[in-house]
UniProtKB/TrEMBL annotation:
Active-site annotation: 32 (nucleophile), 35 (nucleophile)
Disulfide links within the chain: 32-35
Protein name (Swiss-Prot/TrEMBL): Thioredoxin
Site keyed Contributes to redox potential value: positions: 33-34
SUPFAM superfamilies in the record: Thioredoxin-like
Record keywords, A-Z: Disulfide bond, Redox-active center
Family in the record: Belongs to the thioredoxin family.
């Protein structure tokens, strides 16, 4: 499954907080080189772990979502289940993201 871009706060509320599905949310910024470097690997994870929905949000463009989530660094990966945040991984640490998926979402 592809990683889907969240483009508004309303979409964030619906697809992340309103979803019963397990979700990985990639909080990134366009200028962030670490975000760009890990993006293809996150796409690979989205194809590997198909029961999980993968989204990304540019927290510089949708600042209120970034503030609401308390994003302090980019990238930050947040894992949600039943609309509740379970955990977060700060930084481009692919093994930690994958372990979080295995531990908390599957």
């Amino acid at each position: 499954m592809p990683v889907i871009e969240i483009t508004s706060r309303a979409e964030f509320l619906q697809k992340i907080l309103g979803s019963p599905d397990p979700v990985v949310l990639d909080c990134y910024a366009e200028w962030c080189s670490h975000c760009k470097a890990i993006e293809p690997k996150i796409e690979e994870l989205s194809n590997l772990y198909t029961p999980v929905k993968f989204y990304q949000v540019d927290v510089d463009k949708i600042e209120d979502v970034g503030q609401e989530l308390g994003v302090r660094a980019k990238p930050t990966f947040m894992l949600f289940k039943d609309g509740e945040k379970i955990t977060e991984i700060v930084g481009a640490h692919l093994p930690a993201v994958e372990q979080g998926i295995k531990t908390h979402l599957l």
